[in-house]
Known about the structure:
The protein is α/β, with parallel strands linked by helices.
Amino acid sequence: MLEGHGDDGYNYRGKVKMNFSSNIFSHIDLSGLKRHLSEHLDLIDHYPEPEPHALERMIAERAGIEAGNVLVTNGATEAIYLIARLFGRDRQCVCTPTFAEYEAAISAAAELPASERMIHWICNPNNPTGAVLPLEEWRRRLGANASDIYVVDQSYAAYTLQPTLPPSVVNRCRRCLLVYSMTKRYGIPGLRLGYVVAAKRTIGRLRKYKPTWSVNALAIEAGKYLLKHDIPNFPDMHRYLAETQRLRAGLNRIEGVAALQTETNFMLVRLPRGTAAALKTYLIDRHGILVRDASNFKGLNERYIRVAAQLPEENDALVEAVKTYMSCR
C-alpha cells in the first residue's frame, strides 16, 4: 500500500490554492462530465456490470485492437496488483526511482520463485523522472529474450510528445502488457479507472483474479462519456511542454536548485539544502502551494521534490516562492 503520494490535499483542507503535486494539469474542465454524472445518479441504485465489457469495446475500438485485448480496472493500481499476482512465481525487476506501487504489489503477491523468467516493470514515461524510453530501445529489449515479460505502465503517455508503445504491440509481442490510467489522462483521480492491454490469453487469466464489480457504475459511465466527448481544455502538448521547460529554467535560475531534465509535464527538483518536507510545509503554509515530497521514492533522498507544470502565472508563483525560501536558508 502506497504511503505518501501526490495530490494529498486532503491533509491541507482549505489551504491549497495551487496544486503542483500530481502529475497532471490540475485545471482540466470537468463541468461537462459532472453534469452528465449528475443526470445518471440512478445508476447507484443497481449493481454495475460485473465486467464493463461495453467500455472495453469502446477502448478497443479507439486503440485499433479487439475487445478481448482489454481489461478495465479500478484504476491503474488495480491493474498493477492483478499483474503482480498473475506473475507471482516469476522473478521481478523494478528499476528505481519509479512508482512505488510496483514493489508493493510484488511484495503482496510474492511467492517463492519457481521460474527463471524475468518480469520487467517499466513506467514509460517514468514517474518521477519524466524519462521516456526510445522506441529503438524497446525494439532491442522486446527482441532480446524470448521468455522475459515486460509490464509497461503508460499512464502518462498523453503528457509527452515522445513516441510510446502503441496498443497494437501486444498482438506482435505477447510478452508485453500495457497499463493505462484514465484517471491521469482525464484528470479524475477520485473516480478510479484504468485498463490493461495485453494478449487475449493474458487478459483472460487476469480476469480470473479480478473481483466482480471492482469498477463502480459511475466510473464506468464516466469512462464512456470521456471517450465520446474528451476534455474541452486538455492542454495542447506543444505549448504545455514548452511551459514546462520555462518552469524548469526558472527553477534552475535559483542558486543551487537543480530542476532535472524531463520529457513530460512533471520533473524532479533537487534542493541544495534543507529538506523536501520542510519546503513543502513552507509552501503550503505561506503560499497555498502544494508540491510532492519525493523523498519516499527509492533511490532519492530528502532533498527531492516533484512538481508538474500548471498555468504560467502559477508556475511563476512557485519559482518566486522557492526562491524566497532558499534565500532565507
